[in-house]
Amino acid sequence: MNKDHTTKLPAADLLAALQELKNIKFEVTVGIASQDSPGANSARQNTTQIDITRTEELLPPVLTPKDIQNFLSISKSKTYEFLNSGELHVARAGRTLYVSRVVFLEWLEGKND
Fold first, then answer.
1. Is 104 exposed, middle or buried (0-12, 13-18, 19+ CB in 10 A)?
2. At residue 33, what are phi and psi to the nearest 5 degrees?
3. What is the C-alpha separation between 111 and 54, in angstroms, rounded?
4. Any idea what DSSP says for residue 59?
5. Are the C-beta atoms of residues 62 and 98 closer than 8 Å to each other?
6. Helix (H/G/I), strand (E/B), else coil: 57
């Protein structure tokens, strides 16, 4: 009997589970109350809501073309066409291309102008 309660799954099931985890987005709402507001009711009225989507936790700090291809669900040729388009900064080491996660997410959110 297996004492650690682990189950062996076929590789295809593990890959499907991993892909599903990559598609999960975490949303966090944070309330910020003004420090100079007296009383609990005033603090609630001065609360600012900030929504944060944690997509960056699903991506490595430095992206390869394969990471971008998988994340955007596009073909290999479309990935290289995009990376060579000049829409975002791409670092090259020999023939290998790399993109900073920050640069990629700023492009994705339309903040690269």
1. buried
2. -100, 145
3. 16
4. S
5. yes
6. helix
Token pair for residue 16?
């499907």
Asked if residue 63 and residue 50 are part of one domain, the reply reads no
Counting every residue written for the chain, the total comes to 113
| Number of compact structural domains in the chain | 2
**What pLDDT, in 10s, does the model give residues 59-113?**
899 999 999 999 999 999 999 999 999 999 999 999 999 999 999 988 988 886 6
| Cα 55 to chain centroid, rounded | 2
Whether residue 70 is found in the same domain as residue 109: yes
Domain residue limits at 105: 59-113
Q: What is the pLDDT of residues 31-64, one digit of tens each?
A: 555 555 455 454 445 544 444 456 666 789 999 9
C-beta of residue 22 within 8 angstroms of C-beta of residue 54: no
Joined together, the tokens standing for residue 50 give 């900030």
CA angle 12, 17, 21 (to 5 degrees): 145
Q: What distance in Å separates the CA atoms of residue 61 and residue 64, rounded to the nearest whole number? A: 10
